[in-house]
Amino acid sequence: MEVVLEASNLTKIFGGLEAVKDVNIIVQKREIHALIGPNGAGKTTTLSMINGTLKPTQGNIRFLGEDITGLPPFKAAAKGMGRTFQNIKQFGSLTVRENLMIGGMSKNNPGGMLHMLLYAKETKKLEEKVRCQAEEVAKKIGMSGMQDEYAGNLPYGRQKVLELGRALMGEPALILLDEPAAGLNPSERAEFVEILHRVYESGIDLFLIEHNMDVVMNISHKITVLNFGRKIAEGTPAEVANNEAVIKAYLGDRFARRKPSGGETDA
To answer: How far apart are CA 47 and CA 34, in angstroms?
Structure first.
């Protein structure tokens, strides 16, 4: 299968502390890939190295066949790598539509603000194009009727969905999601999973960090597990759920394999 993202021997050292050590991850095309592990396992550090927020101490990252190691986030985004953050980063005083449009401007206007000021007619056409795109994205994320609402007035769950929508405005091939379901109640998580399915079915691959195992196990094709900055397991949700090292380090006994009445472990 075609490889979308390949991280090889990723290592990050902070003042002598190895936060991530020799981590290898491959995300295939048409895949939802999850990265899980205990708090402090190095998940967000890994994600930040992948999208350029942090520069790896060693190792390299290839995206769509191109080496992007150390590339700044805005350049990674221009190549088709979107990202959402655990802490919501929206403009609360702007409407849903305006937040979405901001997410599309950098992709559609590489010339920046100066270009927009100098070429008014071109800017007007650009705004109309991005506005139409925002309409489509709002429909995809189930927020068509909320576009005139201020982002700061939205319920927390809807703000998380808007964060995803803004990433979609960059027309990404892959979206990195840092705990997208954090803070959501069970019904909100179920709705968010449905939205992620729709995004995936539209042709966009997903790579996510998530602590809610109901989300991870229901949506992922493949899971990588970190502990103390090192990869300890990788496989399908079923394989990871039955991995003794993962159960011990992170999942706990509730994910352990059930034993039949005879006392022998299931094969």
So the answer is: 11
| Nearest of 135, 122, 59 to residue 95 by alpha carbon | 135
Comparing CA positions, the residue from 57, 18, 20, 68 lying closest to residue 209 is 20
267 pLDDT higher than 90? no
- 184-238: pLDDT as tens digits: 999 999 999 999 999 999 999 999 999 999 899 989 999 999 999 999 999 999 9
Rounded Cα gap, residues 76 and 174, in angstroms: 11
Where are the strands (E) in the chain, listed by range? 3-14, 17-28, 32-36, 58-63, 66-67, 81-84, 174-178, 205-209, 222-227, 230-235
Beta-carbon contacts of 60 under 8 Å, excluding residues fewer than 6 positions away, are 7, 8, 9, 67, 69
Give the torsion sign (CA, 213, 184, 42, 2).
positive
CA distance 243 to 237: 10
What distance in Å separates the CA atoms of residue 70 and residue 220, rounded to the nearest whole number?
Answer: 27
pTM: 0.86
